[in-house]
Fold:
Amino acid sequence: MKMLVTFTLEHRPGALVEALRVFSELGINLENISHLPCADRASAGTWLHEFTVACYCSGNAQYSAEQQCTLARFRLRQHCKGIAHVFINGNRMYEEAAG
Structure:
């Protein structure tokens, strides 16, 4: 099950490691990571980082592929400023205003 998720992180040490650890702990294989810096509209003069991660949820002994995708989205929210959208197998499953 292919998943594409776009999320925003604060500009601080360790933010990306914390977010990517979510995928690792669930046994999700990353295929691609894209990055764009962006200005924080809520706080002038500060930066945020928008990442898009393409990954493959194949399931494992602990979780089905669907459970991996769902858990990744919910656990990722704990580390992100916002999740902009999630596509699973090409279908938009979730969208919110990031930030």
Q: What stands out?
A: Residues 2-95 form a domain with the Alpha-Beta Plaits fold (CATH 3.30.70.260). The radius of gyration is 13 Å. The CA atoms of residues 9 and 16 lie 7 Å apart.
